[in-house]
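Researcher: I'm comparing several assemblies side by side, and this is the next one on my list. It has 720 residues spread over four chains. Same procedure as the others: predict the full complex and return the structure.
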Amino acid sequence: MDDPRQLKQRNRSAKRLNRSRVTLSVLSEKTGFDKSTISRVLRDDATLSIRPENLALIKNVASDLGYVPDTAARSLRLARSYSIGAIVPSLQNPIHAQIVEAVQSTCQARGYSLLISYIQLEESTPTRLQAFVQKHRVDGLLVHMLRYDASFAAEMRRFPVPVMMVNRLAEGVANSITVDDRSGGALATQHLLDLGHRQIAHLSVASQRFNAHQRFLGYRDALKAAGVPYDPDLVVEAGYDFADGVAATEALLKRRRGGFTAVFGVTLMAAAGSMNVLRRHGIEVPRNVSVMGFHDGLLAQVLTPALSTIAYPLFELGKAAADGIIDLVEGKRNEVVEVLATGVVVPRQSTAPALPRTRT
Amino acid sequence: MDDPRQLKQRNRSAKRLNRSRVTLSVLSEKTGFDKSTISRVLRDDATLSIRPENLALIKNVASDLGYVPDTAARSLRLARSYSIGAIVPSLQNPIHAQIVEAVQSTCQARGYSLLISYIQLEESTPTRLQAFVQKHRVDGLLVHMLRYDASFAAEMRRFPVPVMMVNRLAEGVANSITVDDRSGGALATQHLLDLGHRQIAHLSVASQRFNAHQRFLGYRDALKAAGVPYDPDLVVEAGYDFADGVAATEALLKRRRGGFTAVFGVTLMAAAGSMNVLRRHGIEVPRNVSVMGFHDGLLAQVLTPALSTIAYPLFELGKAAADGIIDLVEGKRNEVVEVLATGVVVPRQSTAPALPRTRT
DNA sequence: CTGAAAGCGCTAACAT
DNA sequence: ATGTTAGCGCTTTCAG
């Protein structure tokens, strides 16, 4: 009864469909033990007691035959899938790509797989998210979005599985993980103040709903703390992209030609746009004007001059998100509200001490 | 019998686990029809004949209740999952991110979901890939890799599901979709030749196994066609990254100071590194030296001067890959070997006509 | 220390 | 024009 029996099943015909999967039943036939026993052995079920020799036998046969439990059957039986769903706008944005990678590796480390869906913001109605959850039986949902509206939050609460917002302020939604953009904005501004700059322009963002608005508040915090009066004329509402940085800086130059010695852009891209315009106008960076970005990335290093910026805890964000949602799923936590500290100033070539008496 | 019966199951207790799923059985109770009938209705099974009124009834109830078929049960029953696995090295690389997005949207459009796995090259043994396939029951596998070795190819052939290489030359592996890098390299070189350049340096790549080697061959093709003798001294073996571009260009400058009027980098990043070094040495781009990259992307537009480059059919690549693997899965094709044409020259500010008589 | 049985939700073959 | 049945591969009582 302990002896593995040899079964011949060499139907290696052209039909690959026929290729018999190694299931528990197969292992049962080979080893003589019951499916249920084998299942428990392979899952290291502590409640099972079995002779060490038999345990070893079963494990060996399983690994020799390359047994891999079937996720579908498992999900069906357990009514859960050991997978997490992530709603992501686009991976083109390296910020998101980096977060997603961290999420993925953390999930993997904790035995979950990650199912990514690129539902666009407009289409991401609760109904669609519900359907996604139900269809794939994901155990939890991570939502990265550019913004969200309030009615959304209400629906989120009565979701069949835990939901968590990533990198978004989420009033009304129970679980979220964000970064303290405000103190990040202050940090960036402080860096410029430390270099002696007093006329610091800020390329901001239109809506108060965006994260970036917090950076603006941090900008004001730092000015205030340094006793530098806030001048609304130095703030231009822009956006996240290169083109936004270009447009905002053009506007700034038109509005006050030369009346600033530094620019703090909301974004790497916006700052890059700014540098581009400055150079086109013959304004040298950092000699005449210093430029500071936000977020770190390849882009910052590749620009000439390399962009000074704030390192943003993207990896930590992704990891915390994955850990958070899995904790929720496993009931290890009932609520997750985390605010990560922003990173650190990464000084590079785009910022330099303010020229004394520069009042062009 | 046609009348929907009202069932009370309002156990909206704190336990969300209890929240009863809408399954075929539930629909069966509500409508009075059998599960199997409902299943066939909902899948628009052509072999089923049913009264239009009943069909409508069933469909309505299903949608009212928000029925969503359970993927796990379906996979188990059908022994397939309607999902495609993708083995990707990293999404940090925007090239990959873009391809993956195209793959994803194409899969979605054809009713498949995409399961991404970041198995690293070193870990991507056939055994691991097998396990991945078996575990998730993916119907097909898309493999993006930086390189592969020959033994790999052999194992690939007897996989339980179709496998396809994306953007890799794959001798031995049946299915692949690649881009004609060679003519792309020729195109890039031709652009510089057209501008009057004759001393065109090329930052190449070390191994012949890389795609980029094809670009080098294209470079030689174009030179030959133009009757410009190939000078090995103008070719520096580098790599894909910014730092590689920096190092290679430094080497080039040391080797022959000024003996070239243009640089063709294998990559956007390498070209960016090159521009950086050139500027540091006081060599103006494009006035003194023109620089040409390969692949298009945000990066190219953001650099100053904006980088001239070759648009690469990234989206098409992803789409063709997804379509190919799904065709294989569905038996619509038995083999997929596609080579896409490279894109087109995107001229920007980093290339300009060669100065006449520049023989520094 | 181990086995038998039931059932998750679905679909396909075979009944009516 | 619809219903019945069986079973995909797994885990969980409950019995020995």
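Model: For your comparison table: Residues 94-109 of chain B form the longest helix (16 residues).
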